[in-house]
Write a sequence for this structure.
């Protein structure tokens, strides 16, 4: 079984899908935002803060992601004369979900582990909402936001500005992910049906 990468803008269902994959396939869930928050607190000099500068944060966490994915997914598992075979724990598979992926920089590091093509080693899932207007994003946030959501406290002007950015970012992310071989799924509507389709596709690829 392959490891799985779920990438896309925020609030598109990545965490929910990862939990579904864990439940049905047993993949351990790794939340990239939590990883980055730990790094920000433990090693502030690395500047991997989220909710700061998206491009800088993405670039700064890329070396870690490149080596992490390479170490746990390469065939040799060799690094610095250490034999760290990936099959040391049989069936130990993960699903990594998040939005901060500098794929070009990650790929340059993965090549040192013998990984030339992401799709050969990972199931690549891109979640986007390319069909939504800013008004539809706004309505959705106001309807479904809870205190656990970071947009919950936005006033109307702040939320409207954020929703306009969401429209642009989803379109940019769709083009970006497609360029690197991710299979795109649009979660603009009927998310449960979309998730069922994704699970069928994952099981078929496995």
């Amino acid at each position: 079984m392959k490891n799985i990468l779920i990438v896309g803008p925020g609030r598109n269902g990545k965490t929910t899908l990862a939990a579904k994959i864990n439940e049905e396939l047993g993949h351990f869930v790794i939340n990239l935002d939590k990883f980055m928050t730990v790094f920000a607190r433990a090693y502030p000099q690395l500047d991997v803060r989220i909710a700061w500068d998206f491009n800088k944060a993405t670039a700064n966490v890329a070396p870690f992601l490149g080596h992490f994915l390479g170490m746990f997914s390469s065939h040799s598992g060799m690094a610095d004369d250490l034999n760290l075979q990936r099959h040391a724990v049989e069936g130990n598979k993960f699903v990594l979900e998040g939005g901060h992926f500098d794929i070009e920089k990650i790929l340059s590091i993965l090549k040192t582990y013998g990984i030339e093509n992401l799709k050969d080693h990972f199931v690549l899932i891109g979640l986007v909402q390319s069909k939504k207007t800013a008004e539809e994003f706004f309505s959705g946030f106001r309807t479904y936001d809870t205190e656990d959501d970071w947009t919950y406290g936005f006033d109307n002007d702040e939320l409207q500005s954020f929703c306009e950015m969401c429209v642009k970012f989803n379109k940019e992310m769709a083009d970006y992910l497609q360029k690197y071989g991710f299979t795109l799924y649009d979660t603009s509507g009927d998310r449960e049906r979309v998730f069922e389709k994704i699970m069928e596709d994952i099981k078929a690829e496995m």
Q: What stands out?
A: The helical segments are 14-25, 32-42, 54-73, 103-110, 118-121, 134-144, 156-179, 191-205. The radius of gyration is 18 Å. The chain has a mean pLDDT of 88. The longest helix spans residues 156-179.
